[in-house]
Design goal:
Blueprint (H helix, E strand, L loop, with lengths): L35 H24 L5 H28 L4 H10 L3 E2 L2 E2 L1 H7 L26 H9 L3
Antiparallel strand pairs: 1-2
Length: 161
Amino acid sequence: MGTEAEATPNGTEAGANSQPKPEAGKETTTEKPLTQADISRAVNEAKKEWNKGVESLVADKTKDAESKIAELSTKAAESQRYADFVDRATAAGIKDLRAAYVVATGLGYLKDDKFDEKEFKKNHPQFYTPAPNANAGAGAGGGSTGTTDMNSLIRQAAGVR
């Protein structure tokens, strides 16, 4: 007594029925859709990071102006390339944008600012959000028809027909 059992998302006690106990300090979270505030915060953080990089490059006394401009130009082009990829990938339904970008650039799906989305989707479907079930009645009744409902199973187990 005095100790409380930790419950898992399915309501069983942690450690029971092969349920792992959550690590101390770590909570299990479910993915939630991004809000406009989340997106704005991420954009602002990226801008701050970009500005810090630019300021440190400009302050670097070991490089001449020409090499600084070339480096900034390269970074700006890469940032624009990533932003364009994010726009196309979001529209295509890709859920993990950073990982998809690394894979797309590393395996050649993103060349000359062209994203080969058809080949990427064919070879890497794990990056895409599954299409929702278009059946309007899919959630109601679970498609169970006939005598396979719970009442019938209980009656059958009890020997009542």
